[in-house]
Amino acid sequence: MLHLISRCTSDTQSKQPGGHSALLLLVLVGYPLLRGVLAPFHGPLFQHGRYVGFLFPLFILLGVIGLRQAIYQLALQGLFPRARRVAAWAPVLVWGIWGVHVVGQQLQYARTYASNIADIETMHVAMGRWLGHNTEENAVIATHDIGAIGYFSGRQVVDTSGLITPGVLKHLKPGRLADTGVLEFLEQVQPDYLVVMPTWYPELVRRKDHFEPIYEIVLETRSIAAGDRLAVFRAKWR
Predict the structure, then answer these.
(1) Looking at the structure, do residues 217 and 151 belong to the same domain, yes or no?
(2) Which residue from 141, 97, 111 is spatially nearest to 223, judged by alpha carbons?
(3) pLDDT tens digits, residue range 14-31?
(4) Is 148 in the same domain as 225?
(5) Contacts by 118-122 with C-beta closer than 8 Å and gap 24+?
(6) Same structural domain for residues 137 and 47?
(7) What is the pTM of this model?
(8) Which of 31, 135, 162, 174 has its CA 20 to 30 A from that of 1?
(9) Residues of the domain holding 155
(10) Are residue 16 and residue 123 in the same domain, yes or no?
């Protein structure tokens, strides 16, 4: 980054920056559109922005490119010496603003983090423990939240999202209802129980010929959970 800034300052008098790839702009514009079409749930800030966090290096890169363009414009207008004097104080100002911002954010997110933990403990951890006490030791559980449920239940888990069970992915195709693909996969592996948030698979949980509801946990308020209900269904297969 420093090398790029240094290079741009030495080149501003000789040539105008240009020829940048349109790929950066394409990613910034295209990613939100593709995500909205292929995975249309929640917004970019869902769960503290973890689904857009990988774009942060790109944001930094674009900031550097923007800085290069700003330096070029200042040099073009003969204001570069003045800009250098301002730049001497800029780090102090930036670090001061950043410090105040961080302190404020820490106070805010301490409460947010506590409520996030309460969500997971009340729903996912509690569900895992319930499954550990109320299902057979050799039971196979299909679920889309494999972390706490798999750990605290001690049961074999089938992942309907494909993180640890990639076989389901060939049934999950863009433009096709996820409920249909998941049901096809579950008919093949035939788990003993299905544990899902009903809002994730509304058509799937309506299949009373396959899934009998036996238990659920409901959150009165939620801060990070992807739904307010987590239900257990006993699976029935022909």
Answers:
(1) yes
(2) 111
(3) 444 455 567 777 877 887
(4) yes
(5) 118/223, 119/219, 119/222, 119/223, 119/224, 119/225, 120/148, 120/224, 120/225, 122/217, 122/219
(6) no
(7) 0.67
(8) 31
(9) 116-235
(10) no
